[in-house]
Amino acid sequence: MQKSSLFFLVCLLAICSPLLTVAQTTLGDQSLPEEQVKVQIKHHKPTKERSVRRKKVNVKHTPRYEYYARVEKVAKEKQRIMRKMDEPQYTNPLYFGHKRPPKRHDVHQMRYCKECGIRH
Questions:
Q1: Rounded to two decimals, what is the model's pTM?
Q2: Is the separation of the CB atoms in 9 and 17 below 8 Å?
Q3: Is a pLDDT exceeding 90 seen at residue 71?
Q4: For residue 64, pLDDT beyond 80
Q5: Residue 101 near residue 95 (C-beta atoms within 8 A)
Q6: What is the rounded CA–CA span in Å between residue 114 and residue 18?
């Protein structure tokens, strides 16, 4: 019983002692001059601001860099053309094998088409 009460008092003293020392320093009229207070204040910047900053990319516009930029541009253009070529050209039945859909004429103005063999 005595050991547990002694242990409880020691723990209570250990917890309260820092609080008492802080309270003692704040009491009384022991303020520092304004000049010393300004020197002691440290401005802490949040870590978010530092993480937002990004290092500028150091791009050198050398002939080799420009060459590779041109090569990449040509490769992109070639891929775009290849994608366009993959699409079938004459899949729409309205085109009848023509590049563009043929004009629709009146019945008395229809002509025979050499490409598709249809009058239109």
A1: 0.31
A2: no
A3: yes
A4: yes
A5: yes
A6: 103
